[in-house]
């Protein structure tokens, strides 16, 4: 048994290292760990079936699919019309309020995708003073309800798997409301320290655009200065990739152009027509036969199966009837030609496509469309919209009043939405949270392995022997901060999946109720205000404007301090340890 405990500890340590190193491969890392544990006999087939099909996990799936239907209503579109007030400060209050409230019931990345375009396009105020507060507000708004963020649902499903009653819809609300109010108050003042960048200086900047120098061109053998293409209006030649693959990153005035060079420009995508007017330069899109079409701007979804694949491997012309004109990445660098660039969640793409094809289902599965002309194509209307909204309100109200499990009410509402056409089978298939289901199932199987090998008991005994004299408050604060730090290193869902079994066993060893600690884990996993990469909405606004890391620190540190202090002080009061 001792050997199994040591071996499992080593496996889990390696898993954590790989989660930190390969954040894009979270599901794969968890799945391989689950498989190793099964092959080594640390949990049984019955454990696997039980963990993969518990009612908490089913509730998670039902609620996330219902959220898809809610996102199809015109709620956000109507709220978007209320964004702008008489001055910047009143506008900020509106944006923060709308973002937080919307994120309580809708996916916060979907909320951000809809609001980003309206905010960054405004000529009235500085978008840079509004976008980052919007992102932080959606994060805090997600803590208001059970379905506000996937981490809340994951914690709920894992809590149910231990034999407890699940959370109700408003379990998180007392703490979340105070956290959101105080956090948004801090945002109101710290936003004054954000840079004043006009919309003309934020919109469409930082895109990488590829053109090719045609063979036999008159520009061949000229220097970039002599050809007059080193600095264009709004565009700068950043990189040259030779026909043999040689990459020239340091462009000098004397750098000579060669036949079939691929030229990578960076700058304002709206100036792309300048490149198309230069004779013998062929845009990447035109080389694929996609001239004379419209350009749409999209953001790669965090759930897209395209993540980690190159532009060439994705084959946009075949799969989306489109081609990539420009790409904008958070790291603001491009190491290869566009075809070889690997797509990440949060990347912004400019696609040359036909309007009819930009409305297809594949787009909805992989991208947030932030182009004004195409964002309304999938909106519910009439009685279907009313049915979705009223049905959701009744589901929540019935569960709260009667204490009925959300499993039953969410299942009935989902079935009703499917029967009435508010959701289609293809939408359900495309929106199934398979990755979250795999992470939770893997985590539960790992927890079973810890139980069966005795590693869980080791943690319980350790806490009983060495932590017994510590105040429960100290243990709670330690787990909260550890979860928060882990969230900055790996994904928030992975942090919850790892910390839940550890926290549960620690609480058991010390002899206190695990509930407040579990609630703390959920809030800690949503506390990502310090970097652009810690949370999807942060990455989206980072790409959408000209923010620097310093801006996240200036605004994020005060918000984080208030968030942490409020949670650590308030959670044990609302949900005592005994």
From TrEMBL:
Gene3D superfamilies: Regulator of K+ conductance, C-terminal domain. Keywords: Membrane, Repeat, Transmembrane, Transmembrane helix, Transport. The chain crosses the membrane at residues 6-22, 27-44, 56-75, 95-119, 131-155, 167-189, 387-420, 470-503, 515-535, 555-575. It is a multi-pass membrane protein. The keyword Membrane applies. One of its GO terms (molecular function) is monoatomic cation transmembrane transporter activity. GO terms for biological process: potassium ion transport. It is found in: Membrane. Residues 195-281, 283-369 form the RCK C-terminal domain. PROSITE patterns: RCK_C. One of its GO terms (cellular component) is plasma membrane. This is Citrate transporter family protein.
């Amino acid at each position: 048994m001792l050997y199994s405990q040591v071996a499992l500890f080593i496996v889990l340590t390696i898993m954590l290292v790989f989660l930190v190193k390969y954040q894009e491969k979270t599901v794969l890392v968890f799945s391989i760990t689950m498989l190793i544990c099964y092959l080594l006999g640390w949990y049984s087939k019955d454990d696997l079936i039980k963990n993969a099909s518990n009612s908490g996990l089913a509730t998670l799936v039902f609620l996330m699919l219902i959220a898809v239907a809610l996102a199809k209503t015109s709620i956000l579109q109507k709220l978007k019309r209320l964004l702008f007030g008489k001055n910047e400060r009143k506008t900020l209050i509106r944006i923060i309020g709308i973002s937080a409230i919307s994120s309580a019931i809708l996916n916060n990345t979907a909320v951000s995708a809809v609001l980003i375009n309206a905010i960054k396009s405004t000529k009235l105020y500085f978008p840079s003073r509004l976008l980052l507060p919007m992102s932080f507000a959606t994060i805090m708004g997600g803590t208001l309800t059970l379905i506000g963020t996937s981490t809340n649902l994951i914690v709920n499903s894992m809590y149910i798997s231990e034999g407890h009653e699940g959370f109700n819809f408003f379990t998180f609300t007392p703490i979340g409301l105070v956290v959101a109010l105080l956090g948004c108050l801090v945002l109101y003042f710290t936003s004054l320290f954000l840079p004043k960048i006009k919309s003309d200086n934020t919109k469409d900047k930082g895109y990488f655009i590829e053109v090719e120098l045609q063979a036999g061109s008159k520009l061949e053998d000229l220097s970039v200065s002599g050809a007059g293409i080193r600095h264009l209006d709004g565009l700068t030649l950043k990189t040259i990739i030779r026909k043999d693959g040689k990459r020239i990153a340091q462009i000098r005035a004397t750098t000579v152009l060669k036949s079939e060079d691929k030229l990578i420009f960076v700058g304002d995508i709206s100036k792309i027509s300048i490149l198309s007017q230069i004779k013998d330069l062929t845009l990447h899109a035109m080389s694929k036969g996609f001239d004379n079409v419209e350009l749409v701007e999209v953001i790669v979804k965090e759930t897209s199966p395209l993540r980690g694949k190159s532009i060439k491997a994705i084959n946009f012309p075949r799969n989306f009837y489109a081609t990539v004109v420009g790409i904008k990445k958070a790291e603001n660098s491009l190491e290869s030609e566009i075809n070889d660039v690997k797509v990440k969640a949060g990347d912004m793409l400019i696609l040359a496509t036909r309007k009819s094809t930009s409305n297809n289902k594949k787009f909805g599965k992989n991208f947030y469309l932030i182009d004004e002309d195409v964002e309304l194509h999938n909106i519910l209307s009439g009685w279907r919209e009313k049915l979705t909204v009223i049905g959701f309100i009744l589901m929540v109200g019935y569960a709260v009043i009667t204490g009925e499990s959300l499993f039953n009410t969410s299942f009935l509402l989902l079935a009703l939405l499917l029967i009435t056409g508010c959701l289609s089978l293809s939408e359900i298939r495309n929106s199934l949270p398979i990755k979250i289901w795999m992470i939770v199932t893997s985590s539960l199987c790992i927890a079973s392995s810890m139980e069966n090998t005795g590693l869980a008991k080791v943690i319980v005994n350790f806490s009983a022997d060495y932590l017994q004299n510590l105040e429960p408050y100290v243990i709670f604060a330690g787990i909260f901060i550890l979860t928060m730090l882990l969230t900055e290193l790996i994904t928030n869902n992975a942090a919850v999946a790892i910390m839940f079994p550890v926290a549960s066993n620690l609480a058991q060893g010390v002899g206190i109720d695990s509930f407040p600690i579990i609630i703390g884990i959920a809030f800690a996993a949503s506390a990502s205000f310090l970097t652009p990469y810690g949370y999807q909405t942060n990455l989206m606004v980072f790409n959408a404007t000209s923010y620097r890391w310093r801006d996240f620190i200036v605004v994020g540190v005060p918000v984080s301090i208030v968030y942490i202090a409020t949670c650590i002080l308030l959670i044990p009061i609302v949900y005592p340890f005994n």
